[in-house]
Amino acid sequence: MATAEEALIKQSGDIYRSILHDGTDNTTQWRHGAPPTFDSVNQLFEEGRTKEWPKGSLEEVVQNAIKSWDMEISHKIRLQDFKTINPDKFKLIVNGRKGLSGEEILGLGSYNALLKSSLPKEFQCYKADEETFESSHDAFLSAFPRGFAWEVLSVYSGPPVISFKFRHWGFFEGPFKGHAPTGEKVEFLGLGVLQVDESLRAEEVEIYYDPAELFGGLLKEPLISPSRSESEDNTVDVAAAAHGCPFSK
C-alpha cells in the first residue's frame, strides 16, 4: 500500500508533467503572446545533465516542479494563471534576504529576484535594482543563447518540506554587460528548500548559492571597447571593475 508521501509524489509528478508538456488553458495570458518553446535549452539539458532520474521519482518531481515554476515566472504575466504556487502565501527567499512575494517577482523578473545584492553599489557587478524584467532577460539570453539549464542533483527530504541540491549551467557564447564571451561552460551549484501546501503548490522557496560562481565566469574577459553611443551604458561596469569587483576574482 502506498504511503501518504508516495501518493503526494505521484500526484505532484502528474501535475508538474502536465504543466511542462501539455500547456495550460486558453485563458492564460502569456508574456510573449503564446506558450514558450524550449528546444534549445532542452537540448542543452539532455546533453549536459549529470543525472537521469526515474519517471515518478521524488527527484524527477522536484526537478519538474522548479522548472515549471521558473517557466511560469518568466512567461506568464498574471499570478492568477500560475498553477505551481499558492499566490496568497508564496515567498522566495534568496541567500537569507527578505522574502519576495509572487507579485514582486513578476515585476522584477526571476533573474533580478535571484541576483539582488546587499553589497555597496560600487562593488556590484550586476545592479538588479537598475534592471527591468526585460533588460535582465535580454542580458542573460545574450550571454547564454542556447539557454541556461537546471537539474536536481540530490533530494534530501520529501513533501511537504523538500530540501534539495541543484546545478545551473550554460555556455557563455554571447556578450554580457559589455564583457566578451569565452565560449566556456559557466555553472554554479546551490541548495534549496521548497515548502508545498496540501494542493502541492509552493508556499515558500528558499535558495542558497554563491553568485561568485556565476559572475566569475561571466566577467572573466575584459570589457569590449564600447562605441560612442554605448559608452554611458558601460560606465557602471567600468566603475565596478576599477573598484575590484569581488565576483571577478
Automatic annotation (TrEMBL):
Residues in coiled coil: none
Gene3D superfamilies: 3.10.450.50
InterPro entries, per the entry: NTF2-like_dom_sf (IPR032710), Pathogen-related_defense (IPR053218)
SUPFAM superfamilies: NTF2-like (SSF54427)
PANTHER family, per the entry: PATHOGENESIS-RELATED FAMILY PROTEIN
Protein name: Pathogen-related protein
Organism from which the protein derives: Salix brachista
